[in-house]
Amino acid sequence: MRKLQKVLTLLLILSLAASLAACGGGKKADTINIGAIYNVTGGQASLDKPSLNGFKLAAKEINEKGGIKGKKINVVSYDGKTDQATVANNTKKMIDVDKCVVVAGLSDSNYALAAGNICQEKGIPFITSGATLPTLPDQVGEFAFLAPFGDNIQAYACADFAINDLGLKKCYLLIDQSMEFTKTLAHFFQERYIANGGEIVLTDNYMNKDPDFSAQIDRFLASNSGAEIIFISGVPDDAGVVVKQFRDKGVTLPIISGDGFDTPLLIEVAGAAADNTYVGTHASMENQDPKVQQFIEAYKKEYGTAPENAFAGLGYDTMYLIADALNRATDINDPKAIRDAIAATQNLAGVTGTVTYKDGSRVPVKSVTINKVENGKFVFIKEVLPE
Predict the structure, then answer these.
(1) pTM of the predicted model, to two decimals?
(2) How many CB atoms lie within 10 A of CB 366?
């Protein structure tokens, strides 16, 4: 009798365990895990924090409208800590442990390459929301996509604007040699600027997080090169520091840069010295397009502040890009079907422009917004679409 009771008890436990497992599986079946790998601490935080906020805001909006094919989005987010090894390890975790069907995020190409290569190895689609290295998808493989334009497009736009709009044909070029992004951006800017009839009168280099730019500035001042504008190919944590040091030494020339300077740090660190700095980036929060203004109001409501920069909009648009693809995918559990749906994206309008992947390219062609720092704020100047 006692033996029979033990058997019945064991059967009851097994039955209960099976029931609980079925319930857990039911909950999982009602959600879809999407990975968000962002550097919310370290030197990339001023870009990645807003981008993650935008990404999560879009997921919330999509869930409130019913989700994706009846499933609610569960954003699985990890901090890459502005460290490539951490980015790679956390990307693996998202895929192997959390079973994310898509991974997105990051605003710099060094880190996006680290995440993208893991996703390619695992056969999971990866969309970088902010990294702009135009060769990144080809370097990584068929599962990698850019949501923003490439470095070539933003560099060309800055060069076109400097010559065609400002009429400045002599440029001093200062390059951060520690980043793939900054070296690539400088290459394309120089290529376009010279093609437009401009002259690079002097070039100098530095490394990310150099605290003192006095050697470069002194060389520039001693050169008497006749420069009319300065192009600095840099990233957020250097932006305010380098601009302030140039201004403190009496350099009043216009400064122009790419989206690495689209950071609150530029104004917070440089203060009034940031004025007369132009930034080629992905969007302006002054744009009166209803889609942009609705995003701004939703962001304010969710986070109690206006979007800090265009990267908030890029994160937001990337989630909608993923949702659009998942809704069209033949099987949302098949990574290849999801990849094919992303690649087929056409005319998807967002806060940062319209996404279309043409002729097999996994980099969209989008216009570049030129903003200018005036009186401590970014002011919209114009949109440029290089031909």
Answers:
(1) 0.84
(2) 23
